[in-house]
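Work Package 4 report. The design task specified in the project plan requires that, given a folded chain encoded as structure tokens, an amino acid be chosen for each position. We show below one input record used in the internal validation round.
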């Protein structure tokens, strides 16, 4: 059976679910948080050590300001109300992306990372204001300045995912089949599952079904 150490998820479909069932995109974002908590629990049950969640991309700034503000207020409330519980569960939180949010949110993110920094049961990488092209350009610039040999190993040291193993599995919900500027380097050999369900509809059963399929799939990595 294939070992599964790192799952990455593009949590797509919150807004569409909200419009469909509640006539509000924001209602979909709120409902999506419930799915996040369920998937965290199942990730721990499956003894997976790394979970990366694509929460807000560099392109998401193009959305209406009211929606962006609501997303960040949801995140702030989540950190305030849930970070102690995550800490008790031995969960580490790491932010990948550029922290140029409000001082309140930046402080909450920094405190949450510091509080959970020594936890080892599960590491949640939250991709916020993250864009893979921006990450790669900056990694190449930093590598060039270092005067080190340009190779895969050295470049990886300058990525925001430094010291994090590459994902084994990518799941994208929402019936959309693209990577949307997410971990383009790191996903080179990940197995990819595109799911038709919108993120608030995605269940523990769906997650475990994908994991089970991953564990028995034949992975060649270029070999026969």
């Amino acid at each position: 059976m294939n070992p599964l150490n790192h799952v990455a998820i593009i949590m797509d479909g919150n807004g569409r679910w909200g419009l469909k069932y509640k006539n509000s995109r924001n209602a979909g974002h709120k409902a999506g948080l419930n799915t996040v908590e369920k998937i965290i629990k199942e990730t721990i049950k499956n003894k997976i050590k790394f979970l990366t969640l694509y929460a807000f991309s560099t392109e998401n700034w193009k959305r209406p300001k009211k929606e962006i503000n609501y997303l960040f207020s949801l995140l702030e409330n989540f950190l305030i109300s849930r970070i102690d519980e995550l800490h008790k569960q031995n969960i580490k939180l790491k932010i990948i992306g550029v922290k140029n949010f409000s001082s309140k949110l930046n402080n909450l993110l920094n405190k949450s990372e510091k509080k959970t920094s020594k936890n080892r049961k599960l590491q949640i990488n939250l991709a916020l204001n993250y864009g893979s092209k921006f990450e790669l350009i900056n990694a190449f610039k930093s590598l060039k300045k270092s005067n080190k040999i340009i190779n895969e190993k050295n470049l990886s040291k300058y990525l925001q995912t430094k010291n994090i193993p590459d994902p084994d599995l990518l799941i994208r919900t929402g019936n959309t089949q693209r990577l949307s500027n997410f971990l383009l380097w790191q996903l080179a050999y990940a197995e990819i599952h595109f799911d038709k369900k919108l993120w608030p509809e995605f269940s523990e059963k769906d997650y475990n079904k994908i994991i089970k399929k991953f564990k028995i799939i034949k992975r060649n990595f270029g070999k026969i």
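Helices lie at 14-21, 25-45, 65-88, 103-116, 132-146, 152-156, 204-216. Validation will be extended to a larger panel in the next phase.
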